[in-house]
Amino acid sequence: MGDPFYSLDGSSHVVVEFQSVNVDAANIIGEVGQGMPRALGNIMQERIEQSATSVGLAMYALDIVTAHLKKPHRSGGTLSDFEGVRLRYADMRINTFAARSVLYRVGRLLGSGDSVVNEVTTAKIFCTEAASNVVDTAVQLVGGQALVSGHPLEDLYRKIRSMRLAGGASDILRLNVSKGVFEFDSGIV
What we know:
Blueprint (H helix, E strand, L loop, with lengths): L4 E2 L5 E2 L21 H6 L2 H28 L12 H28 L6 H26 L9 H12 L6 H13 L7
Antiparallel strand pairs: 1-2
């Protein structure tokens, strides 16, 4: 067993390698040598779950920043009184709405029974990146206190960053979407 390592979200992992292991035939799941295709068979569910989690994290970040922007500010009003803040806040809401819309659209496509590999992959990319932008802007609007250990945005910041890597890094997934179109002529994306 390897040394433990930690993800951005604080979860711990370890590499486990088996060598010269005999497994009783009754304990083998599927066909020998087909573990990777079997594991990848679940990747679409993982990616749609990551999309949904990302949308939820963006909505939570919006709740946090909305409350912060309504608090009294040293300027005599609130941060929400400033036009620049309102522009950034509007972008946060727009990104969250768009990500949620993509998630719902892909959810409907999943229910159709058609192959929607490119669509689910696109949702994973779009939702995780939109949520990342929302959380990053929330941190910017709240300021340094958002990065103090224990602040909810500090936790969200780490979680959302790791979402862009788990289940396939965004740029690798972009290549997969292109491959789906150019090599397999599939998908509606």
